[in-house]
Amino acid sequence: MKKFITTLLLVAGWAIACVPAAARDLRPAFLLTGAVHRDSQDLSGQWTYSKDLYRTGLTDINGWVAKSRMQRYRDIDIAAEEAKGGTGFFEFDMDRGPRIAVPGAWNAAQPELRYYDGLIWFQRKFKSKPLNGGRAFLRFEAVNYKAYVYLNGKEIGRHEGGFTPFTLEVTDALRAGDNRLTVGVDSTHDAQSIPTFITDWDLYGGITRPVRLVYTPATFIDDATLNLRADGRITGEVRLQGPRAARQTVTVAIGTLATATAVADADGRAVFDIKAPAGLERWSPDSPKLYDVRFSAASDTVRDRMGFRTIAVKGSQILLNGKPIFLRGISLHEEEFGPNPARNMTESASRALLHEIKHGLNGNYVRLSHYPHSEVTVRLADEMGLLVWSEIPVYWTVDWENPDVLRKALAMQAETIYRDRNRASVVMWSVGNETPVSAPRTRFHGAMADNVRALDPTRLISAALLVERRKVNDDVDGEEVTAIQDPLMDKLDVLAVNTYAGWYGNDTLDALPGLKWRVPADRPLILSEFGADALAGYRDDGNKKFTEEYQAGYYRQTLAMAEKIPTLRGMSPWILKDFRSPRREHPVIQNGWNRKGLLSETGVRKQAFGVLADYYRAKAGGR
Ligand code: GCB
């Protein structure tokens, strides 16, 4: 495994620990931090599409370049060409194709696409204003899973990874006036994708998050970040790009509390290290104070809404702003309420989910599983006051010994961290979920943990680990204990485990409070998952699985078990809402839905919702 080299650089008298070389290589060419607040054109709306199950628009039968009559990305008016007659013909016409709403997963859009897994071409036309010496970028918030992007017939870039943004410069390809944007979206997953094709959720395909055409000046602020450190200083940096990036004076203003200036180096990088202003209110779930932060250079200004807080671990405690905190959470998939979700996280869709966590369950924390959720959700968590666990889908199976797969994982992590590092709500980066222990797997996760540490030393690292039930020698009565046997623990700040005793396996609910846990005494532990299925409305007094009573009983008993773990510092039971999963095909109970939600897919509360809400109310001190 390549060792990261950390260098210490002195700029203008400040010691700055630099991002190690390998991690630095993962920085995307353009970030456009704060793009949502920039001069831009939202390209959401009706696009046309063309299915391409055999990938004829990418390659011909021999694997060579596609036949021109198949190339969906051509900048051509096919009806006009056909009107001319002649020997040529076409086997597509994007202009006259069926329509589909972007953003959104195609699976929910049309019955014919419900189980479509492959390549689909999307197209829309739009008008651009003249750039007048400025620049333009297309920023995709997420395309699931691979994207091939063409503007006016010219390929402008590709991207792999279904949940992270990517930005492509189109200054030269863009026309003032009419433009034709075509995106090939390939939803297929394989043994080398992240995740692989084996998951417990609907993989969905499509342009699932907004696409924006962003206008910038020739020299612009590509990235700007600030962070409150444990020693009470606020550090950060601004990155300028463009012909006049070098040695610009950059100013940062935190609300009306403070301003500071710094001068960019020859590469357009300016660093800040200032004392936190007196009167700076710390962000917390109880008081999610956000400031308008403004970064300005001669030619450009970028603004953001940011909170300032510290997060740390001390012994077995998790400290938020220096004070111990218990994480009253729940896990969440990115799926809106309703019978036919399209993974379209509008602000109101996301707010409805987070509202149930914050005000229904009395929560202060959400595990955004199992991949980076939309920026809308993370920004709302900032605004509403919910701490966030963020993860990338290194889940169950991964081709652990393949360096290309590791590279993909590291790049995905980097894209997530660069996107969200200004969000006060995000306190934990997870490097994996339930991956079976082996030496190659632990090396892979170890490299991920090192990468996270290098890119963002200010947040905590965790992973959802598996637990083992085993007999221990010193246990006289030969009783079993629940333990974590995983060398990855050494790389983590917070231990986290998924435990399903009482659902999977043969334990009865009565046995749960008596289960013995053997976990390190000096490390914080959270239960990253526990849960049981119940079909909303399926009631029975007995002890039948899938009933609301069983699920509620399971929660009562699991919480009683949890109370006996002295180092327990939080939990995110599985899961807020029933979610689509093709693994779950019981025709009466499941019908393609994982039923471990405390809410049905349409938002009906099951009995267990009240059990957890009461527990969290008591934990929060009765508030
Ligand atoms: C797990 C997985 C989660 C599944 C859940 C289940 O451990 O992390 O993705 O959906 O169990 O329902 O079995």
From TrEMBL:
<dbReference type="Pfam" id="PF02836">
    <property type="entry name" value="Glyco_hydro_2_C"/>
</dbReference>
<dbReference type="InterPro" id="IPR017853">
    <property type="entry name" value="GH"/>
</dbReference>
<dbReference type="InterPro" id="IPR006102">
    <property type="entry name" value="Ig-like_GH2"/>
</dbReference>
<dbReference type="InterPro" id="IPR006104">
    <property type="entry name" value="Glyco_hydro_2_N"/>
</dbReference>
<dbReference type="InterPro" id="IPR036156">
    <property type="entry name" value="Beta-gal/glucu_dom_sf"/>
</dbReference>
<protein>
    <submittedName>
        <fullName>Beta-glucuronidase</fullName>
    </submittedName>
</protein>
<dbReference type="InterPro" id="IPR006101">
    <property type="entry name" value="Glyco_hydro_2"/>
</dbReference>
<feature type="domain" description="Glycoside hydrolase family 2 immunoglobulin-like beta-sandwich">
    <location>
        <begin position="230"/>
        <end position="309"/>
    </location>
</feature>
<comment type="similarity">
    <text>Belongs to the glycosyl hydrolase 2 family.</text>
</comment>
<dbReference type="InterPro" id="IPR008979">
    <property type="entry name" value="Galactose-bd-like_sf"/>
</dbReference>
<dbReference type="InterPro" id="IPR051913">
    <property type="entry name" value="GH2_Domain-Containing"/>
</dbReference>
<dbReference type="InterPro" id="IPR023232">
    <property type="entry name" value="Glyco_hydro_2_AS"/>
</dbReference>
<dbReference type="InterPro" id="IPR006103">
    <property type="entry name" value="Glyco_hydro_2_cat"/>
</dbReference>
<feature type="domain" description="Glycoside hydrolase family 2 catalytic">
    <location>
        <begin position="311"/>
        <end position="592"/>
    </location>
</feature>
<dbReference type="Pfam" id="PF00703">
    <property type="entry name" value="Glyco_hydro_2"/>
</dbReference>
<dbReference type="GO" id="GO:0004553">
    <property type="term" value="F:hydrolase activity, hydrolyzing O-glycosyl compounds"/>
</dbReference>
<dbReference type="GO" id="GO:0005975">
    <property type="term" value="P:carbohydrate metabolic process"/>
</dbReference>
<dbReference type="InterPro" id="IPR013783">
    <property type="entry name" value="Ig-like_fold"/>
</dbReference>
<keyword id="KW-0732">Signal</keyword>
<feature type="signal peptide">
    <location>
        <begin position="1"/>
        <end position="23"/>
    </location>
</feature>
<feature type="domain" description="Glycosyl hydrolases family 2 sugar binding">
    <location>
        <begin position="107"/>
        <end position="217"/>
    </location>
</feature>
<keyword id="KW-0378">Hydrolase</keyword>
<dbReference type="Pfam" id="PF02837">
    <property type="entry name" value="Glyco_hydro_2_N"/>
</dbReference>
<keyword id="KW-0326">Glycosidase</keyword>
